[in-house]
Amino acid sequence: MAVESEHVTADVIEAMEFPDLSRRYAVRGVPKIVINDTTEFVGALPEKEYLAQVRAAVEANGKE
Amino acid sequence: MGLIADNERETIRTLFDERLAGEVEIVMFTERESPIIIPGKEPCEMCGQTEELLKEVTSLSEKLKLTVHEISNANEEAQMLGIDRVPSFVFKGASRGGVRFFGIPSGYEFSAMLEDLVDVSSGTTDLSEETREYLSALTEPVNIKVFTTPT
Lengths: 64, 151
Hints:
A: 3 strands; about 25% strand; B: alpha+beta; 5 strands
């Protein structure tokens, strides 16, 4: 997704090497995906549902 | 014998030959071992191996280039890229947004990283039309963190 939009930054984080981040984002299973520090889910999702999560995160930001 | 097995090395070389569209620079941030032991400061356990792995990967195609910065000496560049941890690296190519890695990519993550290199080399993905339309219309920042473990 980051390849397609200049507004997207994708971070791949190795959870064991950064235990402080894993704690902060309560990582208990992988892959865990956190969007804009607000929306999160665990496990691979089909692209359509993944996009729905991104949409939800962007809309949640807009409401704040 | 390096970190990448010989047979795998050939597979990756072929993948790069066939699919890398343009050049990609991998900019890595590391912390080399200091002869001085600073109390309370952990040495970077995976920095050496990550650098070695990226060296091996970039040696498999002329389109790939590796630049390594000691994080303490490259504050400005690290700040610009939003990097405050090591080992870490970013892909610079035809990607519109930022693609950053924190920690060594191993197991499944290693293959995923190779695919990401291919995407960044062309600036295109195999995402659906709907997804791409949505992304191109975005006007505000989106940060996606993906936590993985070595498998």
